[in-house]
Structure formats: C-alpha cells, structure tokens
Amino acid sequence: MRNVDATFPNYKEALTKSLLFFHGQRSGHLPKDQQVSWRSHSGLSDGSEAHVDLTGGYYDAGDNVKFNLPMAYTTTMLAWSALEYGKRMGPELENARVNIRWATDYLLKCARATPGKLYVGVGDPNGDHKCWERPEDMDTPRTVYSVSASNPGSDVAAETAAALAAASMVFRKVDPKYARLLLATAKDVMQFAIQYRGAYSDSLSSSVCPFYCSYSGYKDELMWGAAWLLRATKDKFYANFINSLGGGDQPDIFSWDNKYAGAYVLLSRQALLNKDTNFEQYKQCAETFICKIIPNSPSSSTQYTQGGLMFKLPHSNLQYVTSITFLLTTYAKYMKATKHTFTCGNTVIVPKDLISVSKKQVNYILGENPIKMSYMVGFGSNFPKRIHHRASSLPSHSVNSQPLGCNGGFQFFSGQNPNPNILTGAIVGGPNQNDGYPDQRDDYSHAEPSTYINAAFVGPLAYFAGGVGKSVNV
Predict the structure, then answer these.
(1) Which architecture, in CATH terms, is 11-468?
(2) Are 111 and 65 in contact (CB under 8 A)?
(3) d(CA 272, CA 221)
(4) Confidence of residue 4 (pLDDT cuts 50, 70, 90)
(5) pLDDT tens digits for 411-433?
(6) What are the domain boundaries of the chain?
(7) 45, 93, 149, 390: which has the highest count of C-beta atoms within 10 A?
C-alpha cells in the first residue's frame, strides 16, 4: 500500500537523527552502547588541573571546548522537549533521557565538586581554536574555569539551575533518587546565582568572550532559572523572586544568550493552564513576542527569506529558528488546551497560525527550500557534506590511531573532499539570507553544527512526528 504521507518529511526519522547527533558530541569515557562509532574516549583528564573530576558533558559545536552556558541551555531545551512532547516521542523518549543525563551528570560534577565554586567550562578556547585536531588527540590546555562569590556568574549559574530543575522533572518517575539530587543541586546553584550577582563574562572575560559572552546580561537567566524552579517545586519563593526582578526586555529573539521569551512562554503556562492571574503579565509578554515573529502580524519585526525561512542574524541563523519554533509550537499547545486566542493589532491569532509558521520552518530545514538542501546531516539525499567540525572532518581514531597534532588536521580542513565521518542528525548554522548555502568547511557561520541548534529542534520534531504534522489544521 502506498504511503499517503510520502510527500511530507519523515519527522520520526528526523527526530531519531536529531537525538543521535548528541552521541557525536560526547566528551569523556564513551559507554558500550555509544552509537556514533567513529568517536572514541576524549577529555579523560578534564578537571585535573583543579584536582577535580570534570569528565563528560558535550563539546558545544565543531570544536573541543566545553562551554557550560550553551551546554546548560542545551540541557534545559532537551528537558523541556521531553516534558512537553515526551508522549509524542515514542521510543525516542528514552534516547532523549540518555542525552539529558549525559549532560546533567557533568553539570552535577561542576556544581558539587568544590563548595563555594561552580565550574563553568573546560578547555582554553583561544588555544583550541588555533588547532584542527580530533577530540581524542587534544594536546591544547584543558584549562578549568569557575565562578564564585568573589567572581560571580549569575547567568551561567541560573542556566545551570534551570537545566538541573527541568531535568529533575524528566527523571521524577523513572529515577526518583536521581531527580531529587538534581532538584536539590538546582536549588543550591540558583541560590548562588541570586546571592552573588554578576555576569560571568565580566569574571572570565577572554576565556568566554567573544565565544559565549553574556550579551543580554544575567537578569534573563535569573528569571528563566527561577521559572524552572517554580515549575519543579511550586514554591512561591520563586514566584516572588521573579516579580522582584521587575519585568524584562521585549525581545524578538530566543537563544542560549537571551532567555526572556522562553521565560515568558514558560510562565504563561501558569496563567493559561493553571488560571493563575498573577502570571497574566508574562502571558502578555509571550504574546507580544509572538506578534513580533509571525509574518501576518502588524507588529512583526522578523525577516523571512524569499524561500520562507525566518532570518534573524547572519551567524548561525538556524539556532534562532529552532529555538523560536519551539516556543511557537509550545505556546500553540497551551492555546489549544485552553481554547485560547489573542490578537496582534486587529488580527486574531489562533493556534494553527503558530503551527503553520512552525511547520514551514521545520520543513524548510528538512529540505523543502529553494535549493532542496536538508540542513540536517544524513537526512535526505542532499545535505551538507563539508561541515565545520573537527571530529567529522578528520580520519577517525578507529581508522588512524596516530595522533594528528595541533596542525596535522589543517590539510583536511582546507581540502575540498566531503567529511569522512557523517555526523548524522547535526543541524548546521544554515543558509544565508538569499537561501544560498556554499557548503564550505571554512564557512563556520553557516557550516558549523551546534548542540543548542539541535536541542531546540527536538520538541517541534516530536510535535509533528506525533501525528499532527500532516496538516496545519491541528
């Protein structure tokens, strides 16, 4: 019998691959069930400089550094995906939990290793970026970075708290003991973020800037972290703390750096699903954000390419597309559950308006675009072959176990051959504003994948894989 859905992207396949990608980003001692076989153990001495064990976690993108601000955001988004869309994931829910736990095991070490300190990264980014070598061969400094009372980092601490709190709910039924540890640690780290105020970029400067500078400040993370702890604990302390912050910016973006829109959508859940009028202002903020995104809104400030892709910034634009798409599907889900509508100017917005925009973004990324390019590696027949990713672009450790050294990989970096190792499921930075994609390894702003692009895409993929993707009339 012919598959009537053959014209649609296979969302279930894309969901499976989006989660498989994280196996290719793993740092530490790889387990027997490691599914990306061309990767091997790496970073096994991480933390030794500070006499602590900081092995594990994920490399954030195509390099070999562990930056905890984007890693914690990645973890929060994976956990949010599991919480909102777990029932639509089928067998992939367990794979999502495995990916979340790989991150939270590391984040727990960072939070619990040394009293009064939160470790926030491993690996000197300046040294690392001068080399093109496999993570298995790293000989660059594995410098350890931390924040403390005297060198605060409210942003990275609150994001870590958000990740641990969100994950605690994911594990609450399947591993209650682990869930309790996650939540207890989240509370401690959030208290640290609140008590010692300051941006981690001010404390760590060139170690995190310009790579993952906290450009939006730390107030958005304080709101986001408290919102997650409120959802996990229902403790009014966090609601009162959020109100004490006195509101926030009205952005038209959502990313590892700027969390306001995510916090507004998360808090609007209280107003919509729990009918709590104390959160009405955050629902209004969420809707103001959405009015800035959707194209048929009179207050839209969002550009779309001729091919229909949301276009926010030239560098790694798909990170914004996946994150914003997550918020659109999630808010539409809350709207549907409560039969809620709202207006942008005189335009009435119903759930299917948000779903329609989301579906177009998801389908564009999966290959329904002017150049018929899937921006997910290994999905479809036409996908990026020369991604900006050290491990993918170099002969694998299993093929050539001889260390390549810092400069040994540049011959592969500058070559035109496709990467020898397919990083299945990786979503690259994406096309330019003219819907073009040159597929050049040195074009990192378009060709580099990252954990936070993928993590935010898991939720929308699960939404459409769960059976609603066949029509915008959900």
Answers:
(1) Alpha/alpha barrel (1.50)
(2) no
(3) 23
(4) very low
(5) 999 999 999 999 999 999 999 99
(6) 11-468
(7) 390
Catalytic residues: 388, 439, 448
Following CA atoms 458, 461, 465, 467 in sequence, which dihedral angle do they give, to the nearest 10 degrees? Answer: 120
The three-state secondary structure class of 161 is: helix
Query: Does residue 459 sit in helix, strand or coil?
Result: helix
Query: Among residues 423, 395, 429, 428, which one has the least CA distance to residue 411?
Result: 395
DSSP string, 52-94: S----SB--SSSS-EEHHHHHHHHHHHHHHHHHHHHHHTTHHH
What is the per-residue pLDDT across 235-249, written as a single tens digit (0 to 9) for each? 999 999 999 998 889
Q: Is the separation of the CB atoms in 430 and 373 below 8 Å?
A: no
| β-pair partners for 427 | 376
User: How far apart (Å, rounded) are the C-alpha atoms in residues 205 and 199?
Assistant: 10
* Backbone torsions φ then ψ of 407, nearest 5 degrees: -95, -5
CA atoms within 13 A of residue 126's CA, in its CB half-sphere: 7
- What is d(CA 269, CA 298) in angstroms, rounded to the nearest whole number? 25
Closest Cα partner for 274 from 266, 286, 285?
266
Question: What is the residue whose two structure tokens read 């027997």?
Answer: 32
Q: Which of 325, 372, 343 has its CA nearest to residue 469?
A: 325
